[in-house]
Amino acid sequence: MRLSPLLPFALTTVIFSACQPASPLRKSSPTQPSHFPNPTAANDTPAETPQASPLPPSLPAVAPRVSRKTSAGITFEGVSYDSRTHRLQVIDQPQGPGSRYSSSKDLAEKSNTLLAINAGFFTPEGDPLGLVISGGKTSGGWNSASSLGSGIYREESSGSAGIVRRGARSSFSNSRELLQAGPLLIENETAVSGLNSAKTAVRSIILTDGGSRWWIGITSTCSLNALARAISKNSPAPWKTRTALNLDGGRSTDLFVSGKVAGGPLNRRGFLNRSVRNFLVLRGK
What we know:
Blueprint: E1 65-71, E2 74-82, E3 86-92, H1 104-111, E4 115-118, E5 131-134, E6 137-140, E7 151-156, E8 161-165, E9 175-181, E10 184-187, E11 190-191, E12 204-208, E13 213-219, H2 224-233, E14 243-246, E15 255-257, E16 266-268, E17 278-284
């Protein structure tokens, strides 16, 4: 798929032009799992796994809030929230991109959610390029090879949420919400090595401190390598990032934040944007 750069965030409407993706998409659909995978692909393990630091202390929950920050020349706009009081849901469109919702704004307003953002990659035919679980319903197939499926956002039936590497778990059968995307940008508070530094695009990302604090949003035009380094040195959130995951970007980038969120409303979508297959939405528990 073709991605494009993002012009300055001061514009209410963001304009995109075509550019190449972080990694080429395949015409064929991803390999279908028998149900839930037991992945052991070699590229699922970093060349050198950084030592895990202690999890952050539990702090009082803070209401969702829009934040804007520039780090290493990259501008971040998004929302910080606490997973003890709010949760992300995966919204899939089984009939294909744009079949139910034309944009993040359209989805957020129709479903009365606080935030909506484009989520996973998809094939030219409109199928998910990876495993997707929305409200317990599975679609797509296990992406065992592409870097665009090397990370997993999941919420278990218990309500616990996290970001993990593709090969870090043997099963996701207890997941209520799941999105396979990638690549991972930050792991154990360290920038992942080997990320592309040549291709640039606007990005959609999600990150966490490893506890209950989360941030989700978009960036200005950057490479994956520059993005990972910027986050590791100066997190867009007011806390250290333990894990960060890249979502679909470029012409798919589409963020809407309701006026119910402190600092909102916010609408970042260009007129050259294309319809997407699925979204992540934020709502109270």
